[in-house]
Design brief:
eight-stranded mixed beta sheet; Rossmann fold; alpha/beta
Length: 217
């Protein structure tokens, strides 16, 4: 079974990591420092298959990487890590280019919107890695348990490498996703990143974060 590296110690990283451990994977959570308190607490809560270190440690450890960092620091993290430990690896990018500087609701950072995406910028930074955008359109609990949305929602993925997308497809199935649509290359991440404003507005209008999108066809 492949090892998994996770970038990020927030609720998304912790939820993804815990689910992967339940599925039998070994998981290393990465942060800026090797002694991050949140990561250490997560390791204690998740047993011997859980470990922690720096972002670079997680990149080196993982056969597959989940990027669960906030969009505002994502590119900085990938610059810190560099390409050496990501060459040929599948990197599942869950980040979104959200700007919270004016409070709620956040807006999409203009330079990563419509004619560009955060997913594309990551791919440019680490060209030898295989970036696959997915899971960024739902909250973390629905990410790892699709039916928590109350139905059979649709998940999308975008990426340039067919083998990487096949790996992601298998992981999505393990998270309970049955309706998975491959949108095409990494430029199609522009569309799914732009779904966040409507997700946020639905959440604010209904108070329900356990929602998903369904493509009826």
């Amino acid at each position: 079974m492949k090892k998994i590296g996770i970038f990020g110690t927030g609720s998304v990283g912790k939820t993804i990591g815990a689910k992967l451990i339940q599925l039998g994977y070994e998981v290393k959570m990465g942060s800026r420092t090797s002694n991050n308190e949140k990561a250490a607490d997560w390791v204690k809560a998740n047993g011997p298959k859980a470990s922690a270190g720096t972002f670079e440690d997680a990149a080196q450890f993982g056969d597959i990487i989940f990027n669960c960092t906030k969009g505002e620091i994502t590119l900085e993290v990938f610059k810190m890590v560099g390409s050496n430990h990501l060459k040929g690896k599948t990197v599942i990018d869950i980040s979104n280019p959200l700007d919270f500087s004016n409070g709620m609701p956040p807006f999409l950072t203009p330079q990563y919107t419509n004619t560009n995406s955060l997913g594309e910028e990551i791919q440019k930074l680490v060209p030898e890695a295989n970036i696959v955008k997915s899971l960024n359109i739902v909250n973390c609990e629905v990410m790892v348990s699709a039916t928590k949305s109350g139905g059979d929602p649709t998940m999308f993925m975008s990426g340039n490498n067919a083998d990487a997308k096949a790996e992601v497809n298998e992981l999505l199935k393990q998270f309970g996703w049955k309706d998975i649509i491959d949108l095409g290359d990494i430029t199609t991440a522009r569309g799914t990143e732009m779904m966040l404003p409507i997700w946020l507005r639905i959440y604010m209008a209904t108070g329900n974060g356990y929602i998903g999108f369904k493509i009826v066809r």
